[in-house]
Amino acid sequence: MKFLFLRQKILKFVIVSYGAQKNLGYIIKELKNMTPLDIKTKEGEMVFINSIETLLKKNVEKLEYETVHRRKDVTTYPVEVHLQLSTLGEKNIFVAIILDITERKNYTEKLENEVKERTQQLIIALSKEKELNELKTRFLSLVSHEFKTSLSCILTSSVLLSKYKLTEEQTKRNKHIKTISDKVHYLNTILNNFLSLEKLETGKLTNNFSNFKLSKVVDEVV
């Protein structure tokens, strides 16, 4: 889009490209009776006025900025403005090249939303990983404690077994042998549970269904 307007107290459109007319919804006859402020929003008016004053003071040769334009149907759209002071014959004019940046803004907004969504997903993933690491730490601490306790029982029973050498002490020997057997079985169960956890994380765990008495499980827990 290209707007040319005179440098007067009230700026008027001189030439407006067809693309600008189509986008704004005004025909050239209508635009020639309007000022650039008629297509600005309230926020954009002050930005435009300050830009004009800056160019008139010749502080810079050209200005680039983003603002919002208002169409005839009152809808708005974001634009990028390239504004500079020029001449047309003996008249000083302002030349404005306006780029509709709706697609760019939509893409940027979409990209920002995707970044925000991915960031949220990453936060959730990190939170789950932290929780999993805490569970692993607690699990390993529990396993370590259970191993020490069970190994201590096995060691104690082994020492006591060596003291019961008489035939009539077989009952006591059987008691400690059973303790050792139970503790070894218990440690084996812990190891299997630990290996199951590793399989669960790698997705290699398969389920095998079986029937059992719930009362037995409760008795073991108790």
Feature tags:
222 residues; alpha+beta; Beta-Lactamase; Helix Hairpins; five-stranded antiparallel β-sheet
Which strand order does the major sheet show? 2-1-5-4-3
Global geometry: rod-shaped
Low-pLDDT sequence parts: none
Order of helices and strands: EEHHHEEEHHH
Work out the number of β strands.
5
**Residue share in helix:** 55-70%
**Average pLDDT number:** 83
User: Looking at CATH, which topology of the largest domain would you report?
Assistant: Helix Hairpins
Main β-sheet: number of strands, strand sense, barrel status? 5 strands, antiparallel
- Helix tally equals 6
Q: What separation lies between the terminal Cα atoms?
A: 83 Å
Give the helix/strand class.
alpha+beta
CATH architecture of the largest domain: Orthogonal Bundle
Question: Can you tell me about this structure?
Answer:
With 222 residues, the chain is an alpha+beta fold. It has 2 domains: 2-100, PAS domain (Beta-Lactamase), CATH 3.30.450.20; 106-205, Orthogonal Bundle (Helix Hairpins). It is 57% helix and 18% strand. It has helices at 18-24, 28-31, 42-56, 102-161, 170-202, 214-221; strands at residues 2-6, 13-16, 62-70, 76-88, 91-100. Strands 2-1-5-4-3 form a 5-stranded antiparallel sheet, with helices on both faces. α4 packs antiparallel against α5. 10% of the residues are buried. The model has no long low-confidence stretch (mean pLDDT 83).
